[in-house]
Every structure is written in C-alpha cells, then in structure tokens.
Amino acid sequence: MLDLDVIRAEFPALALTHDDGPRTYLDNPAGTQVPRRVLERMTEALVEWNANMHGNFRTSVRATEMSRQAHLAMADFYHARSEREIVFGPNMTTLTFTMARALAGRFREGDEIITTHMEHEGNNSPWRIMAAERGLVVHTVPFDRHTYELDLDVFDALVTERTRFAAINVASNLLGTINPVEHMVRRLREVGAITYLDAVQYAPHGPIDVQALGCDFLVASAYKFYGPHQGVLYGREELLAELPVSKLRNVPDVAPDRWETGCQSLEGQAGTIGAVEYLQWVGRTMGQEFRADDGELPERTVEVHAALRAMVAHEEVLAARLIAGLQQVTGVRVHGITDPAAFHRRVPTVSFTVDGPAPVDPAEVARFLDRHGVYVWNGHSYAVPVVEWLGLLSRGGVVRVGPTHYNTVEEIDRCVSLVDEFVSRHRTAA
Ligand SMILES: Cc1ncc(COP(=O)(O)O)c(C=O)c1O
C-alpha cells in the first residue's frame, strides 16, 4: 500500500504554495510533477558529465555509458528484448512523425490502415498525412458515445487481408478508457499488419509488456510518468534495423543510433533513468503485495510493475470518489466509464461538461479552480478526434481532472466542492 506522506515528500513541487494555500495538481494527464530522484539524476548529468557521447575523456565516456543505461532502463520498463529496441526522441509526436515517414514506403496505393476516434492528435495527424501522401484508405473505429468504449465489432469487420497498418491508443487522454489492445494487436497480427501503440496516457497507470502484447511499436513520454520531457519508443528490432531513415552518413547504421541522429538530450535520458528508479523504489518499499514474479521478467520490470499496480489501487479510490462527487453536481456529465466495477478498463483521467439550461464554459471552470490553487485542464487536450466525435469541439471541449498516485482524497473532495460552488454560482447568476 502507498504511504502518501512518504510519497509526497519525494516531490518538491507538492510542497509549494499557491498564494498562501496549497497547490493541487490535477493536471497530471498533461504532465506529472517530478520526484527528487529525477532532479538528482538531471543535475548530475548537467554538472558531473555534461559532454557529448563517444569521446575519449572521462565526462564523455560517462555520458556514453549513461545513455546506454537509459536504454537498458527503458527496455526493462517496456519489457523489450534488448536496449537496441529503445529509441529516445524529443517527445511522442516527433517520434511518431519520424516513424510515419519511415513506414510510408512500405505501403502502396489502396492499402488500408486502421485508426480510432479515441486517438490523441499525435497518433492521428502523422498517419493521416502518410495516408494522404501514399493514397492509402483510412478506416476509423468509432467508440460508443454512451459506454465510451471502442466498437470491437466494427474493428473486427475492418481487419482484412488488405489491412497493412494500425495506430491505436492504449488509453484515452480524455475519456480515460483503456482499449482492448491485446485483442486488437492479435487480430492485426493474424493479417500481418504493423501495429503502432500510443501508450503515453497509459504508461503512468499500468504495467506495459511489449513482448506479451506482440506489438511492433509502442511509444510513451517520460514526462507523464514522473520524468522529464523525453519521448521513448519501443520498436521491434528487425524493423528498427531495416526501415529507411534519414541520418547523417557518419552515424552508424545500427539501431538505435540510426534513429537518434544529432546530439540527444542526455539530461532527459538521465532523468528518465531517475523516473524508472523512483518507480523501482515505490515497488520495493510499498508494492510488495503487487509483485507478480513469474521468473520470466527482469527484477527491474517486476519492481516497476509492482509500483504501477500499487499506484493504480490508490488511483482507483480517487477516481471513484471524483466521479461519484461530480455526479452529485447538478448538470455535470462525466464523459467516460463511471461504473467502479469497470474501473480496470479506465485510467483515473476524468472529463466532464456541465450541461442543462445554463451550460458552463470549461475554461471558466478551470480559471475558477485555479483561483483556489487547483490545477486542471480544459478544452480538447489534443484529443481532437475524441472531442469531435462527442460533438463538443465548438462548445469548448471538457474540463479534465486527472489524479495520479500522489494525490489525496482530500484534494479530490476539495476539487469537487469547488466545482459544485462554481456551478451553483453560475446557475444563480444565469
Ligand atoms: C495519449 C497521448 N498521446 C500522445 C501525446 C503526445 O505526447 P508528446 O507531448 O510526448 O508528443 C499525449 C500528450 O498528452 C497523449 O496524452
């Protein structure tokens, strides 16, 4: 079980104040705060070995070794076969554009690709641009506007011998829904399609095992799981070795070097090691009961998975309280799974609108909460396909409240009571 006092003491930002009161970070789906371990790793990188890689002097040798360690750490985080399957980049979006350019040449006019209405734009635009350039047919799997889950019958019918590629979100950064990617990847592999999974939103809220999933690519960003701004892609080794890529001629033509051309953010990679170390520490000290050690996984993977499961157990309590509280507020409509029995199919990211005779502008809610030190996002949060499908784009999108493992029940209650206060005032004024 998590000891929240101990956890919170690890995050310096949680002790800062907003005017004279506390800060309540519920903007976590957009980016989490960072623990001391991450700050230490980044400071060490910038002070003790601030050099580019592959030189013959001490700081550069250290930089080269730390980059290797970062690849190894993320290989264990994803349970990849080796560090050669890990590519670092500035963020998920840039990595995805790179991969879209690299994959484009494999497809011919008329080939079919699949995506969903549940994507973040970062897993949508790159593939649609690729499809337009190559003359590919794009099929989009809808989600049900009442259950907020993908229509698997439509998906199953769309997968045929003509399907060459699919880009799928593991968890929606707006609805919170976790998609049945195991099933989807299995079906897609049966027809030989390449699979590209966006795990950016899912990564802080559950264990990832790319070998068990069988996907070809999976991408996440460390700043969502307590690290710095740093994108990290898993790619099947054969594909990373053989796909065409634009690189400088002196860069070795081996993975991952061929993808990581130019000087990388080594402080970002160091911070990512720190994020994995933080998760290991949580797994070791508070996640013993969540260990699933079948002897197959590396110890670091087991520890990280135990930490994430321990975090999820706490996050489910927060999400249940948040959803139940919001549903008591007149006019609030939660856009996502609300039944606690189905919480294993959602992350704790909760979006809502205030409907009825006097609809509320989500931006006004966010500004009101900010006046009280509670930070939440409003709008589409780049989940443009989702908000379009819900018909909410022209209405200003949603208010998104995103707890994570360091949030407390008291913070959730405060947020709900502020939403209630705002809505009551708004109705009286209307
Ligand atoms: C589901 C999802 N995909 C992709 C992204 C884009 O990630 P990045 O900022 O690393 O490009 C985000 C960021 O919020 C996200 O939540």
Explain the layout of strands and helices.
Blueprint (H helix, E strand, L loop, with lengths): L3 H6 L7 E2 L2 E2 L1 E2 L10 H13 L9 H21 L7 E4 L2 H13 L7 E5 L8 H10 L2 E5 L10 H7 L4 E7 L11 H10 L3 E5 L11 H4 L3 E5 L9 E5 L1 H6 L23 H21 L12 H29 L4 E3 L15 E5 L7 H10 L2 E2 L1 E3 L4 H6 L8 E4 L7 H21 L1
Parallel strand pairs: 3-13, 5-6, 5-7, 7-8, 8-9
Antiparallel strand pairs: 1-2, 4-10, 9-10, 11-12, 12-15, 14-15
Helix pairs in contact: 2-10, 3-10, 3-11, 4-5, 10-11, 11-14
Bound molecules: pyridoxal-5'-phosphate.
Instruction: Tell me the structural class.
Output: alpha/beta
CATH topology of the largest domain: Aspartate Aminotransferase, domain 2
What is the annotated CATH architecture of the largest domain?
3-Layer(aba) Sandwich
Number of strands: 15
Distance between the termini: 46 Å
> Briefly, what CATH class of the largest domain?
Alpha Beta
> What is the count of helical runs?
14
Largest sheet: 7 strands, mixed
Strand residue percentage = 5-15%
- Radius of gyration over alpha carbons? 22 Å
Query: Numbering strands along the chain, what is their spatial order in the largest sheet?
Result: 4-10-9-8-7-5-6
Mean pLDDT equals: 97
CATH homolog superfamily of the largest domain: Type I PLP-dependent aspartate aminotransferase-like (Major domain)
* Helix content estimate: 40-55%
What is the number of independent domains?
2
Bound molecules: pyridoxal-5'-phosphate
- Give the H and E element order: HEEEHHEHEHEHEHEHEEHHHEEHEEHEH
Shape: globular
